[in-house]
Amino acid sequence: IQSLIDPEKKFEFIITKITGIYPEDLVGKPKMFEKINEIVDFINPSQNNDTYLVAHNVDGFDSHVLRTNIQRYAEEYVSTYYYTSCWQDFKYIDTLILAKKLNCIPSKKYSLKAICEHYEITPGNHRADGDTDALRVVYKHLLDELAHELVLDADWLYENPFVVYEYI
Fold this sequence. Notes:
The protein is 53% helix and 5% strand. By secondary structure, it is mostly helical. Helix 3 crosses helix 4.
């Protein structure tokens, strides 16, 4: 899912500097309450299995934004189509923490951009598709590192995120 969202409030210039998004770019774009059900459906939480979400610096931003917006706008929807408060059970795998714990980035710089540079990956562009593509490749490289450390198969780790989650 890639969509600009009207945050319904003014944002700091630093956001424009980081993302290249200007306030006028968001005029007429959907508001979060209009997109949150689609986001939940994309995640598709299951009562029978844990839901693992991979992100970079997830505790610094993503998990808070997701939890807050599901709680604010989609609790009834989630309770109707999934299970009550499933979003509280999401398990987050943070590639920033994983890279630090693996100690595999010689520069000791752990921004997504720095990790991409280390693995010679084209970094994202602060849009969902670009950042997700870069993060997916970074995650696979980090799984290779973890597989080597744990003497496991990286593909198996990819299919069994609970091991990664427990490791971090």
